[in-house]
Design a protein that fits this description.
Elements: E1 22-25, E2 31-33, E3 40-48, E4 56-62, E5 67-69, E6 91-94, E7 98-99, E8 101-109, E9 115-124, E10 131-138, E11 144-153, E12 160-168, E13 177-186, E14 195-198, E15 203-206, E16 211-214, E17 219-223, E18 232-240, E19 247-255, E20 258-266, E21 281-285, E22 292-295, E23 302-305, E24 310-314, E25 327-328
Parallel strand pairs: 2-11, 6-9, 21-25
Antiparallel strand pairs: 1-3, 3-9, 4-8, 4-10, 5-7, 5-9, 10-11, 12-13, 13-18, 14-17, 14-19, 15-18, 16-17, 19-20, 21-24, 22-23
Length: about 350
C-alpha cells in the first residue's frame, strides 16, 4: 500500500496593500485681503499617493482675529457641500463658515491616486491685521500634517478733520487769558488713537477724561482711547494772551498716516495793543490857510512866517478794517485819558 501523498501547502497570503499616503499643500504665496472687501479663497489640496483608501480627510485651521470663513455662494459646507466634479477630477469641498478655529472634512476617504481640494473662503473685517493661518490636516490616526499660510491684510487709508477756534475765556474783553477749542474727527475707516500738538504752552481745562497732555514750551496730547470711524475728540485749552501784540498758534493732529494743522490768532490784552492785520493809521495835518506875510510899518523889511506839515502815526483804537486812504484833518484834543476804552463814547467838555 502506497503512502498517501503529502498535502499541497496553501498558497501564501498576498502581501498587505500599501497604506494610504496623504500629502497636503496650501497656496504658494501669501493671501492678500482687504478689510471689508471680497472674500479670498484659501484652498488646501490633499492627495492620496498610497495604495489604500484613506480615512476621510479633515483640515482644521486657526484664523487670526478679524478674519473669518464665509459661506460659499454655491452651497453648503462640510460633507454635504462639495461641488459636482468632472470625471477623474478632484473632489471639491466648500468649507463651512466660522471664525477662530474652523474644520472642513471630505465626505469620504480618498481612493489611491485621488485628489481633493478643500476651499476656505476668507474675509477680513475692518479690525483685521496681517498674520498667519495655521492648522493641521488629518486622515486617520497615523496621518497628521501641518499647514501655515501667511495672510497680508491691506490697511485702509487714514483720514481726519481738524477744527481749531480761538475764544474769549468769559472774562472781560481785555482779560489776560483766552480759550482754544479743538475738535478732531476720525474721517477714515480705521480705529486709531489721535496725537495733538500745540506750538505753545496750553493748559487742558476740559476733556481730561479723553486725553492725556504734557505741557511746556509746547503742548502734546494723546487720546486715551482709539477713535472709531466718525468719532470726535473735543478738547478745550486755556492760553495766556500776549501783552503787546497778537500771536498765532498752530495746532496739529495726527491719526495713523493722516495729518492736519490749523493756525489761529489771539489778540493781545492791553487796551491799546495792536490788532492783527491792522496797519497803523497815518494822519496828515495841513495848514488851514496859506502862509501869512506880516509887514511891520516901522521896519524897512518884511517877515514871513509859515506853518509846517506834520505827519504822525496813531495806533488803531478799534478792531475795524484798515482804511485804504490816509485821513486828512486838523488835530483836535478830545481830552480823553490814556486808559479810556476807544469804543466807549467820551462825554464832551
Amino acid at each position: 500500500m502506497s503512502p498517501a501523498p503529502a498535502p499541497t501547502p496553501a498558497p501564501p497570503p498576498p502581501p498587505p496593500a500599501a497604506p494610504a499616503n496623504i500629502t497636503a499643500e496650501g497656496p504658494a504665496t501669501a493671501l492678500e485681503l482687504e478689510p471689508g472687501g471680497d472674500a479670498v479663497a484659501l484652498p488646501i489640496t490633499v492627495r492620496n499617493s498610497g495604495a489604500s483608501v484613506s480615512e476621510p480627510v479633515a483640515a482644521t485651521l486657526n484664523l487670526p482675529p478679524g478674519i473669518s470663513v464665509v459661506q460659499a455662494g454655491g452651497g453648503g459646507g462640510g460633507a454635504s457641500g462639495f461641488a459636482a466634479q468632472a470625471a477623474a477630477g478632484p473632489l471639491l469641498v466648500n468649507c463651512p463658515p466660522g471664525e477662530g478655529t474652523v474644520t472642513c472634512t471630505t465626505p469620504r476617504g480618498l481612493q489611491p491616486g485621488e485628489t481633493a481640494v478643500l476651499t476656505f473662503l476668507l474675509k477680513a473685517d475692518r479690525t483685521a491685521s496681517s498674520g498667519q493661518v495655521t492648522g493641521t490636516v488629518n486622515a486617520g490616526a497615523n496621518i497628521r500634517l501641518s499647514v501655515n499660510v501667511p495672510v497680508a491684510v491691506a490697511e485702509l487709508p487714514d483720514d481726519l478733520a481738524l477744527e481749531a477756534t480761538a475764544l474769549w475765556s468769559g472774562q472781560h474783553v481785555w482779560g489776560r487769558t483766552a480759550w482754544l477749542s479743538v475738535d478732531v474727527v476720525n474721517k477714515g475707516e480705521n480705529t486709531k488713537p489721535v496725537t495733538l500738538s500745540i506750538d505753545t504752552d496750553a493748559r487742558l481745562i476740559l476733556g481730561n477724561f479723553r486725553a492725556a497732555c504734557d505741557s511746556g514750551p509746547t503742548t502734546t496730547c494723546t487720546s486715551l482711547n482709539a477713535l472709531e470711524p466718525g468719532e470726535h475728540l473735543r478738547l478745550w485749552f486755556e492760553l495766556d494772551r500776549p501783552k503787546k501784540e497778537s500771536q498765532t498758534v498752530t495746532v496739529s493732529a495726527t491719526l495713523g498716516r493722516a495729518h492736519a494743522s490749523r493756525t489761529v490768532t489771539f489778540d493781545c490784552w492791553l487796551p491799546h495793543c495792536g490788532v492783527p492785520g491792522l496797519a497803523p493809521t497815518t494822519t496828515t495835518v495841513t495848514p488851514s490857510s496859506k502862509p501869512a506875510t506880516t509887514t511891520n510899518p516901522s521896519s524897512s523889511g518884511s517877515t514871513t512866517s509859515s506853518s509846517t506839515t506834520t505827519t504822525t502815526t496813531v495806533s488803531p483804537t478799534t478792531p475795524s478794517a484798515p482804511s485804504s486812504t490816509s485821513a486828512t484833518s486838523t488835530t483836535k484834543d478830545h481830552g480823553r485819558p490814556w486808559w479810556w476804552l476807544p469804543w466807549i463814547p467820551y462825554p464832551p467838555k
